[in-house]
Amino acid sequence: MTRFGKEGFDGDFFELVLEHPDPQSPAWRNWKPGQFVMVRPTAWEHNPLWGRPFSIYRADEDGLSVFFQIVGRGTERLAKLEPGDEVTVWGPLGNTFAVREDAPTLILAGGIGLAPFAEYVRRHPHPENLKVVFGHRPPVECYPLAKMAERVSCQSCRETCPADLDDFIALLGRVIPDYCRDGLVLACGPMPFLKTVQRIVAEHGGKAQLSLENRMACGVGACLGCVCDHKEEGPVSVCARGPVFWSDEITF
Ligand SMILES: Cc1cc2nc3c(=O)[nH]c(=O)nc-3n(C[C@H](O)[C@H](O)[C@H](O)COP(=O)(O)OP(=O)(O)OC[C@H]3O[C@@H](n4cnc5c(N)ncnc54)[C@H](O)[C@@H]3O)c2cc1C
Ligand code: FES
């Protein structure tokens, strides 16, 4: 059964609110930001065959939700779900972002990569240590940034032309070094954005975690559809070994 809402978001952005699979199970009681779920409405039958991975946006006794953007046929069909439609959810899956309570922590999000940080920000015991820098193309109102800005310092940069992208990369180049001595950098977003973060952090000798959003099929390490290159372990499944990696562990 699902409840379904898109309140507060524009365009192709939706919050899918689901009845909680099992709020009392230890895995769900202890879930942490960075983890994800595989979502598959039963109405999909065999097409598409595989569920789709989404970061857990919220999960508590009231429900489980993911925040998603329509990009293809799976997300298009998710957006059309009606209250009462049945959805299968596998999770919580994957590992989590580090929390360094007393360290200045920079959260870098690109587009829908903002989703896993909503709960990270809500739960952090020292929000004064957090700063969010958010790059996006659709208007900022499409994303849940305003809610995060009630708790932590947030800066958003919209890309409307190629020069905006250069400005955003320049901003990353200015802000990341401040967190490279004693702080922590966390990033989630498209691959080119993660590569840029990885490069700047490496140049300044910092510590960063990157959450990868590789395409996934099984979500549990069985199909090898989501591998990335781990420097020590070779090819590893992002779903089972990640999706969060230390930036110096992986090569793109
Ligand atoms: C761990 C993880 C967490 C994620 N969290 C979120 C989230 O919170 N919210 C959200 O909206 N999306 C998230 N994604 C991406 C989401 O899974 C894809 O957008 C979704 O699977 C696309 O399905 P589709 O059937 O609509 O698109 P398809 O029809 O399969 O593909 C349509 C287009 O989307 C592109 N695409 C497909 N999968 C991805 C992907 N993983 N990353 C980038 N582009 C993709 C394809 O290349 C293609 O251009 C996450 C992915 C991972 C791996
Ligand atoms: S999605 Fe199948 S191994 Fe990761």
Show the helix and strand layout.
Blueprint: E1 13-18, H1 26-29, E2 36-41, E3 52-55, E4 58-60, E5 63-69, H2 73-78, E6 87-93, E7 105-110, H3 117-123, E8 130-136, H4 145-149, E9 153-158, H5 162-175, E10 184-188, H6 191-203, E11 208-211, E12 227-230, E13 234-237, H7 238-241, E14 244-246, E15 250-251
Parallel strand pairs: 7-8, 7-10, 8-9, 10-11
Antiparallel strand pairs: 1-5, 2-3, 2-6, 4-5, 11-14, 12-13, 12-15
GO molecular function, one term: oxidoreductase activity
Domain FAD-binding FR-type: 1-99
InterPro entries: Cyt_c3_hydrogenase_gsu, Dihydroorotate_DH_ele_sf, Dihydroorotate_DH_Fe-S-bd, FAD-bd_FR_type, FNR_nucleotide-bd, PyrK_electron_transfer, Riboflavin_synthase-like_b-brl
Written overview of the protein:
The protein has 252 residues and is an alpha/beta fold. It is built from seven helices and 15 strands. It has helices at 26-29, 73-78, 117-123, 145-149, 162-175, 191-203, 238-241; strands at residues 13-18, 36-41, 52-55, 58-60, 63-69, 87-93, 105-110, 130-136, 153-158, 184-188, 208-211, 227-230, 234-237, 244-246, 250-251. Strands 9-8-7-10-11-14 form a six-stranded mixed beta sheet. Strands 1-5-4 form a three-stranded antiparallel beta sheet, with no helix packed on it. A hairpin with a 3-residue loop joins strand 12 and strand 13 (234-237). The longest helix has 14 residues, at 162-175. Flavin-adenine dinucleotide binds next to strand 3, strand 5 and helix 2.
